[in-house]
Amino acid sequence: MIFAKEETLSRQEMEKIQLERLKETVNRVYEKVLPYREKMDKIGLKPDDIKSLKDLSRLPFVTKQDLRDNYPFGLFAVPKEDLLRIHASSGTTGKPTVVGYTQGDMDVWTECVSRIACAGGATPKDVAQICFGYGMFTGALGLHYGLENIGATIVPSSTGNSEKQIMYMKDFGTTLLVATPSYALRLAEVAREMGVDPKTDLQVKIGLVGSELLTDAMRDEMHKYWGEDMLVTSNYGMSELMGPGVSGECEYMCGMHINEDFFIPEIINPETGEVLPEGEWGELVITCIKKEALPLIRYRTKDITRLIYEPCKCGRTTVRMENLSGRSDDMLKIRGVNVFPSQIEEVVLSVQGLGPHYEIIVERDGYADKLSVRVELATATDSFKVLENIEKTVRNKLKIMLGLDAKVILESPNTLARFEGKAKRVRDLRKEQK
Amino acid sequence: MTVNQVSVFIENRQGRLGEVLQILKDNDVNILSISLADTTEYGLLRLIVNKPEHAKEVLLAAGFSSMLTEVLIIKVPHVAGSLQNILSEIAKANVSIEYMYGLSVESTDASIVMKTNELERAQEVLKNIHIDTMTEKEIESL
């Protein structure tokens, strides 16, 4: 089912809406958000210079660093009392990226997720179990509002307690699962351990997965355990832009339809910043054209993809973005959490008794990502207590910084590789393993 | 008298222990006793050697985290119950034993290497019950 008529507009109609909203947004941020005005003034650009969609490329980029520099509310275009909600995502320096929503933003968010849920096969009859962590993370509440809006029954079970999750699925007749791909597979594993075959004993027929890369291999794996007839689609978003709801796959699974009347996508060369021609791979840049609280203009997502403008067999005319192929920087996505090597470095350097060298290893353990950090002892000891303490301290600090459990591997001094140029401290074995 | 033990951190990886032993061999260090305690990921190797200072230095130079630890080497008479007697006296003095392992030399007495939290008090206890400990000199001459 196609949720909104805006998903089937002609290119001309869509561009008309986009231009109107772009002009309005640029005007508003120029007037209300000082850092934006400064950026535009610096290059001598006035809101009136934006006359066509082509002029979008004249506007300066916004990066995560801008959000950090203006922590927490410096890029907001509305007074704080107009906010209905604040979310945050983890940041590399320990300071999170803060995002806010007005009533209007909540409505847009709900609309966007409703569209994506429908594209992924959701109907009012579905019982939707949301196995994303509820809290400051935008994933769970975003899907929650969208699915509720289309009339589905929500089971807000959050993450963890996997056995209970399976019990809910069985007893409540869950038909739709919201989770990261790796957690969805973990749940299938737990079900089988409990003697429940997801294919025959459960009624889950739709999987809306996100927050992690969904590779074809992962999708095959999902079918293998949840049933060949399960419709598994991926969707995309990030808290800076709104949360989930920026784009999502339809039943044809040939790229994620972007909600273009709210988000204008561009593909740029991540090195030069130059806009690339249609169809080329590059970094996705998104401009929010219908947001009140945090209308980011030309936000650099760091995600690598390409845009497909041909209309889709599903009837939607909105542009599609290819499933992501990676990141333009070295960020790791581990169990749905963004991890920067610099965060781990910060922890390693802060613990007494360790040298400054480290190696990060990410691998698949069953269906979950496993993070290990190899560190070097810089001290000598005769006591296991001291060694255990070092391990524990690193683990706890990583947990606080990343929200992830990591394995800490102690090594003798001079064991880890040394680099003369740019250090290669990350070994991501997940691609090799699958 | 206390004696210096060499403590070495080693990862649980094939060949690591062999590397340590090779270094000691190459530097003419004689091992009199060895103890290896491990967790799943790593172990602590504890050695009584004839030249502890030298052993520590060459291991450090080879990239092993190693250090000297003061321990007692207690001569235990070959009589049933003598070790039990020593340990109960030490316990009475409220001294904790952190670890211990055997050291065997060709003599009428057996010996144990012992690390306690309070070396001095442990030595006092031993003196009171007329139990001898080995000296650095004795070790070197073995």
Structure summary:
With 434 residues, chain A is of the alpha/beta class. Helix content of chain A is 32%, strand content 25%. In chain A, helix 6 crosses helix 7.
Q: What does it look like?
A:
The complex is a heterodimer of chains A (434) and B (142). Chain A has 434 residues and is α/β, with parallel strands linked by helices. Among the domains of chain A are: 86-90 and 96-159 and 238-329, Rossmann fold, CATH 3.40.50.12780; 337-433, 2-Layer Sandwich (GMP Synthetase, Chain A, domain 3). Chain A has twelve helices and 21 strands. In chain A, α1 packs across α2 (34-42) and α4 packs across α5 (138-150). The longest helix of chain A is centred in the first third of the chain and has 22 residues, at 11-32. Chain A is globular and about 70 Å long. Chain B is α+β, with helices and mostly antiparallel strands and 142 residues long. Helix content of chain B is 34%, strand content 36%. Chain B has helices spanning 16-26, 52-61, 82-92, 119-128, 136-141; strands at 2-11, 31-38, 42-49, 66-76, 97-103, 110-116. A six-stranded antiparallel beta sheet of chain B has the order 2-3-1-4-6-5. In chain B, β5 (97-103) and β6 (110-116) form a beta hairpin. The longest helix of chain B has 11 residues, at 16-26. Chain B is globular, with a radius of gyration of 16 Å. The mean pLDDT of chain B is 91. The interface between A and B is medium-sized, with 15 and 20 residues.
Keywords:
A: 434 residues; Rossmann fold; GMP Synthetase, Chain A, domain 3; 12 helices; 25% strand; globular; B: 142 residues; alpha+beta; VC0802-like; six-stranded antiparallel beta sheet
Distance between the termini of chain A: 33 Å
CATH architecture label of the largest domain in chain B? 2-Layer Sandwich
Strand content of chain A: 15-25%
CATH superfamily membership of the domain at 86-90 and 96-159 and 238-329 in chain A: ANL, N-terminal domain
Shape of chain A: globular
Instruction: Give me the CATH architecture of the domain at 86-90 and 96-159 and 238-329 in chain A, please.
Output: 3-Layer(aba) Sandwich
**What's the overall average pLDDT of chain A, rounded?**
91
Distance between the termini of chain B: 16 Å
With strands numbered from the N-terminus, the spatial order across the biggest sheet of chain A is: 4-3-5-6-7-8-9-14-13
